[in-house]
Design brief:
12 helices; TIM Barrel; 337 residues; alpha/beta; 18% strand; two-stranded antiparallel sheet
Amino acid sequence: MGDWHGEATDQRGAGVTRPFRFGLQSFNATSPQAWRDQARHAEALGFSTFSVADHVLGPGPALAAMGHPVQDVAAVPAMAVALEATSTISIGSRVFCTDYRQPVMFAKELATLAFFAEGRLEIGIGAGWLQGEYEAMGTQWDPAGVRIDRMVETIGLIRAHFAEGELDVHGTYVHATGFEGVPKVPTGLPPIMIGGGAPRVLGIAGREADIVSLNFNNSSGKIGPTSIGTSTAELTAQKIEWIRAGAGDRFDDLELEIAAYFTTVTDEGEETTAKMAGMFGMTPEEFGRHPHALIGSVDAICDQLVERRETYGISYVTFAARMVDAVAPIVERLAGT
């Protein structure tokens, strides 16, 4: 087992890695109280962040065709309720789709959340990726370059909204002029997370974000078994270089985050890895090294996380809500180390 309290070097080049922190992401609430309880449970177990995704569609043929899970609750009000239900944990979005909101209203909603959060908000932003959802809700599906340009302009507006003075934004897609952004937020602009898996968006994340979320390359506009092949160990190393190129001198200031989509806490790690690898057409060795997969005992997964932090600099890991109790011993052991 590695020394979790020791210093470790990684390819970030900073000499000392960031301490681990962990997030929990939820899509669903079976009742108002259950949603509050999820946030409080994550807080009690030592998770750093409780976050909600940003999907819209309920059950039906549109969502079934995409193979994506239902998200019951809308992101902004669900985040507000989670903030009120807790006192120390940060509340996040992982991640907002900028195309789903009018930009000025979006900036005001974020400022309002930040005003009430008093330093406990993380703003996750993405350019959108699920084409079928766009089509089902009547939102125009533009080419990836256009969606990314719109995201960048929206981020600029958000920064201006949180700053002093009147807004004077005249972009191709985003316009705001002649007024100040309110409410004023004494704690300032919260950390911004930008997520993605393709070269341009990760380069922008390196330049613009405080937290970079490594994800699949979803440029195809749909979810499927081939997505996992866009984030192998080798391709993740390439993604780090895309982030580095965009970040330049600020690379060592970035926090790198990843979702452990394929997590199984088990004493039968080898057998489980082999079974899951076959589902995705990968060898057990390839799947065992996959940065989105954590399979094995608590000790084994802790070792995997330490190794990946040394290799990639990833110190922020998000788990699905269904895994909360299974991964609690990992969070207890590694958080803050």
